[in-house]
Design a protein that fits this description.
The protein has one domain: EAL domain (TIM Barrel, Alpha-Beta Barrel). Helices cover 43% and strands 22% of the residues. It is built from nine helices and ten strands. It has an eight-stranded mixed barrel, surrounded by six helices. Helix 3 packs parallel to helix 4, helix 4 packs parallel to helix 5 and helix 6 packs antiparallel against helix 7. The protein starts with a helix and ends with a helix. The structure holds guanosine-5'-monophosphate (G) (2 copies), manganese (II) ion (MN) and sodium ion. Sodium ion binds next to strand 6.
Length: 251
């Protein structure tokens, strides 16, 4: 398949990169960190959607290598940012299969010198569908390294609530469909989101709303008590060079 060729080619020719999207604090709108999002271009420089190349990379067994690269790249970048800005890296379920994940995270932390508290790892609910015990053991090992763990895209999976009690995630990232729901059924959206925030609180998790695109959405989410916000309203994913510009740091 074309996308598989682009992945193999992309690895050989360094066509993968990371973009960074700001994650802001609800109480004052200040940036507390960035989520790293993987990007790939084809030979002509045209971007290939992560929605396409991530699953393909999982299929062909390339995600371990790419995931390890992303961990190294993102931690190396974040180590240059002002403290205490954090970086979040997405992990694929596949990275929990071969047993090399913990070593890979440790190696990225060691190589970059980044304090573990400044690294956040995002996993989706699908992680907890099979091999729960094995996965949980690895999540414990990751926590023991001092990194924090976020449940991503919360509310889209099959398992949402049934697995929440099983493991102490530090953060819950509300899927952006909840934010979209504001524009359709504001009252029901409000009730649903505030119940999830209350649940998160009770389970000692911070709650991030994703996909915030408008000021009125941001205000409503702050009112409801979200801890952090992320979305195009605050900033789209951008290359590191641009991020430095936006944040006005010296290179
Ligand atoms: O980047 P985009 O904004 O289009 O992301 C699309 C999807 O790809 C999201 O579900 C995101 O979690 C996933 N994704 C982006 N970067 C990475 C990555 O580095 N590793 C993994 N496993 N998934 C990623
Ligand atoms: O699954 P995950 O949450 O890791 O994926 C993040 C994806 O969401 C990325 O593809 C990113 O480009 C996209 N994204 C980030 N902010 C917004 C937003 O405000 N609106 C929309 N529609 N997508 C967003
Ligand atoms: Mn994510
Ligand atoms: Na998400």
């Amino acid at each position: 398949r074309q996308v598989e060729r682009s992945i193999r080619d992309g690895i050989l020719r360094n066509r993968f990169s990371l973009h960074y999207q700001p994650l802001v604090r609800a109480e004052d709108g200040r940036t507390r960190g960035f989520e790293a999002l993987m990007r790939l271009t084809d030979a002509s420089g045209k971007p290939i959607s992560p929605g396409e190349f991530i699953p393909a990379a999982e299929d062909i067994g390339a995600i371990d290598q790419l995931g390890a690269w992303a961990l190294h790249e993102a931690t190396a970048a974040a180590a240059q940012w002002p403290e205490p800005l954090t970086v979040a890296v997405n992990l694929s379920v596949e990275q929990f299969r071969d047993g090399g994940l913990i070593a890979s995270v440790r190696s990225a932390l060691d190589a970059s010198g980044l304090a573990p508290e400044r690294l956040e790892l995002e996993v989706t609910e699908s992680l907890l569908i099979s091999n729960v015990e094995e996965v949980e053991a690895q999540l414990e090992d990751l926590k023991a390294l001092g990194v924090s763990l976020a449940m991503d895209d919360f509310g889209t999976g099959y398992s949402s609530l049934s697995y929440l009690w099983r493991f102490r995630f530090d953060r819950l990232k509300l899927d952006r469909s909840f934010v979209l729901a504001f524009d359709q059924k504001p009252d029901r959206a409000r009730t649903t989101i505030s119940a999830i925030i209350a649940l998160g609180r009770r389970l000692d998790m911070k709650v991030t709303a994703e996909g915030v695109e408008t000021r009125s959405q941001a205000e409503a989410l702050v009112d409801l008590g979200c801890d952090n916000l992320q979305g195009f309203y605050f900033g789209a994913p951008m290359p590191e060079a641009q991020l430095r510009e936006v944040m006005r740091w010296e290179a």
